[in-house]
Specification:
9-stranded mixed beta sheet; 8 helices; 9 strands; alpha/beta; globular; Spore Coat Polysaccharide Biosynthesis Protein SpsA, Chain A; 254 residues
């Protein structure tokens, strides 16, 4: 089973080495690492080029945003399974991809995912927020739920059947995509109650209150198109409550 890991990057010279090392040190042998760079101008390209022996495919050119870049990476992937690990993220340990391969050895399973912690941007050991996921059940995505995206691994055929990310969405195309594959296409998934990814704070959606509001509104409108029936106030209340718990929850299994 070949596993393709897609890393989208733009001007991440302070973090990209950690991400590259995290993938390189995985103990699973059949890994295709794909780097999609948005034409970085801060030294990121030089770091990537110095480690090309560990990178299967690399492209650096202007793009139309993070989701457009992810779609480019997915189109380049040749693995049986695809995961996305962005340039601010690292795997918790060296055995993550081996766990993925073990789970997806069951050909009846389309996807697997696990838990994630948000850490300070300058210190991977300082946990700020815990994202403990759960087993999916019908309509859960219409409550604003999605698996922690960097922990989500999908068979490549899922992307082929459902399409990639909706690039018309600026903030939460990942949530819309997950709702589409889980609720509309009803893929079979497995939740692994273990910590798989450490994510640095500071992403495009959570870097300001205004972006958080825009992202939540965007997600509501996108989910309405997919079949969400709940009114906007109820949706926001449920989604806010689920996110709030992440700041107080402890005890994610390593």
């Amino acid at each position: 089973m070949k596993i393709s890991i897609i890393t989208v990057v733009y001007n991440a010279h302070t973090t990209i080495s950690d991400t590259l090392r995290s993938v390189r040190q995985q103990d699973y042998f059949d890994v295709e690492h794909i780097l999609v760079d948005g034409n970085s101008n801060d030294g990121t390209q030089a770091i990537i080029q110095s480690q090309m022996q560990h990178i299967a495919h690399y492209v650096s050119e202007p793009d139309e945003g993070i989701y457009h870049a992810m779609n480019k990476g997915i189109a380049m992937a040749t693995g049986d399974v695809i995961g996305i690990l962005n340039a601010d993220d690292v795997y918790q340990d060296t055995g993550i991809l081996s766990q993925v391969a073990e789970v997806l050895a069951n050909k009846d399973i389309d996807a697997c995912y696990a838990d994630l912690v948000y850490v300070k941007s300058d210190d991977l050991t300082k946990v700020v927020r815990h994202w403990r996921s759960q087993n999916h059940y019908p309509a859960l995505s219409f409550r604003g739920w999605m698996p922690a995206h960097p922990t989500l691994f999908l068979r490549r055929k899922v992307y082929q059947q459902t399409g990639g990310f909706d690039t018309q969405l600026k903030y939460q195309a990942d949530l819309e995509f997950c709702a589409r594959v889980f609720e509309v296409h009803k893929i079979k998934s497995v939740y692994i109650p273990k910590l798989w990814v450490r994510m640095r704070l500071g992403g495009a959606t959570n870097n300001s209150l205004l972006n958080m509001f825009k992202g939540n509104l965007e997600s509501y409108l996108a989910l309405r198109k997919l079949g969400l029936k709940r009114n906007v106030f109820s949706y926001f209340a449920i989604k806010f409550a689920s996110r709030l718990k992440q700041y107080f929850h402890k005890g994610i299994t390593s």
